[in-house]
């Protein structure tokens, strides 16, 4: 009797290497300058007579590794407006293509031409893909009290590049920086081009150097009513070489 589809999928995934693309949630971690910080507070413990350890989280929707709902930049009434609880889970998994721009400085923007050049040398970005940009900026991820390089400035993609990806009808775009728009971008062109096309944005990823090229990615958001985004656990499966 042939194996079930579930068993076949399990067998295939077991032959691939799983990579955690998420940063650890911890107090004093980098956050966007205008966003509230993350707090993790002990609520009850064994020492206070409780039979269990219980903590309380106070967290911004856009803290740590997270996904933007289209409602983050689009007002109600926009045809692409979706809160986090309304975002289809099909947006949150699929084939990912990771492009390496780790040679970039904090003033650089990925252009449409550079994406096309990458495609010509590697693979064509197709409808339904997830496109990830590795800038190597996670090397600067550190507690804010230690170093603020990560939140001071960062590279991103241009509005023209975002529009090019939007025309391809991909699912999501991700990066290992604080935002997909560069710190030097004043108009958030990439956010508007992507979210305005129903394409979700994943930010503050890590370890993208381990999934360059093609991989399978899954990012699971919390089902937040009225949510503009959500912290996620981002995971990739990469074929073993």
Description:
The protein is built from five helices and twelve strands. 17% of the residues lie in helices and 27% in strands. α4 runs parallel beside α5 (189-195). β11 and β12 form a beta hairpin. The model has no long low-confidence stretch (mean pLDDT 96). The longest helix has 10 residues, at 5-14. It is globular. It starts with a helix and ends with a strand. Strands 4-10-9-7-5-11-12 form a seven-stranded mixed beta barrel. InterPro entries: KFase/CYL, KFase_sf. This is Polyketide cyclase. One of its GO terms (biological process) is L-tryptophan catabolic process to kynurenine. It comes from Paenibacillus abyssi.
Overall helicity: 10-25%
Main sheet overview: 7 strands, mixed, barrel
Radius of gyration, in Å, reads 19 Å
Mean pLDDT: 96
| SSE topology string | HEEEEEEHEHEHEHEEE
Q: How many alpha or pi helices? A: 5
Oligomer class:
single chain
Strand percentage lies at 25-35%
What CATH architecture would you give?
A: 3-Layer(bba) Sandwich
Number of beta-strand segments: 12
Strand neighbour order, sheet with most strands: 4-10-9-7-5-11-12
When the domains are counted, the total is 1
N-C termini distance: 31 Å
